[in-house]
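Priority: medium. Attachment 1 of 2:
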């Protein structure tokens, strides 16, 4: 199954300014039509799964902008509605055939901080504190009716434990996806230990990696499948590195679609891209997956 690319990449290509601390979540209120157009572009490119614009959408982040809790909850629900609308338009206007799915994004605590700490983890919070942060947002997203919750860019096992607790009883399946570097989580945990947390979690229907260097994916996919016995999700970034100080991506991009064949061969069943991966690359990945 083909997952979309970086929502921010498509939104930027459409001319949107994403320099705000809310990132793409700002457009849920300011330009919802742009979010629909971005999801639709990925569906047309061959994606079967759209990840919502809620990665950086949190009650705390919206509160800093003067958005109250009730309004923030509506915007979280809107993120799912916009992806559904894009799927409808892709079918009715663009003639896209086959099932189209919506994954409600729940980014890590560090995404709310908007300082790059989601690439470090270990925020000084307990698992219980992280669970209290995540649960209300996940409840709202689940109530909006996505097909799956995308627990993504998770940097360490503490946050994974919190997220796995937070999704219990919500009635919506989830995938758990770590951001990795050097064969470990961003915080330095052994990947085998990190993946093992999801092995016995009935809510988790897939486990894997995202927003990492594409060259990290193939061994991580093999390990995730071996440790959990579950389908594996893989959607890395372009291989560039996020500079939190300049709020920009640095370094060279890595070959993408060519590596996707390796990921599928290693056992990945949901494949796409994350930051800096646009519709063109997703179209190539779709060719690999369907081939």
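Attachment 2 of 2:
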């Amino acid at each position: 199954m083909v997952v979309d690319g970086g929502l921010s990449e498509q939104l930027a290509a459409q001319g949107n300014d994403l320099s705000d601390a809310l990132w793409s979540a700002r457009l849920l209120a300011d330009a919802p039509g742009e979010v629909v157009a971005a999801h639709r572009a990925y569906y047309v490119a061959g994606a079967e799964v759209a990840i919502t614009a809620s990665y950086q959408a949190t009650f705390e982040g919206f509160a800093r902008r003067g958005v109250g809790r009730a309004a923030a909850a509506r915007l979280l629900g809107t993120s799912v509605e916009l992806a559904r609308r894009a799927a409808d338009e892709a079918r009715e206007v663009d003639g896209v055939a086959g099932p189209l799915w919506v994954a409600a994004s729940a980014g890590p605590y560090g995404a709310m901080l908007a300082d790059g700490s989601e690439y470090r983890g270990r925020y000084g919070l307990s698992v219980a504190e992280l669970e209290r942060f995540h649960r209300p947002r996940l409840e709202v997203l689940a109530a909006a009716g996505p097909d799956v919750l995308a627990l993504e860019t998770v940097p360490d096992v503490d946050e994974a434990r919190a997220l796995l607790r937070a999704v219990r009883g919500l009635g919506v399946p989830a995938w758990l996806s770590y951001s990795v570097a050097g064969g470990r989580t961003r915080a330095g945990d052994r990947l085998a230990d990190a993946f093992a947390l999801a092995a016995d979690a009935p809510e988790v229907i897939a486990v894997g990696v995202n927003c990492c260097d594409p060259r990290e994916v193939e061994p991580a996919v093999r390990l995730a499948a071996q440790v959990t016995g579950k389908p594996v999700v893989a959607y890395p970034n372009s291989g560039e590195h996020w500079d939190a100080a300049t709020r920009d991506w640095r370094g060279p991009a890595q070959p993408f679609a060519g590596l996707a064949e390796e990921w599928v061969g290693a056992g990945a069943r949901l494949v796409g891209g994350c930051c800096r991966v646009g519709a063109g690359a997703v179209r190539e990945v779709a060719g690999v997956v369907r081939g």
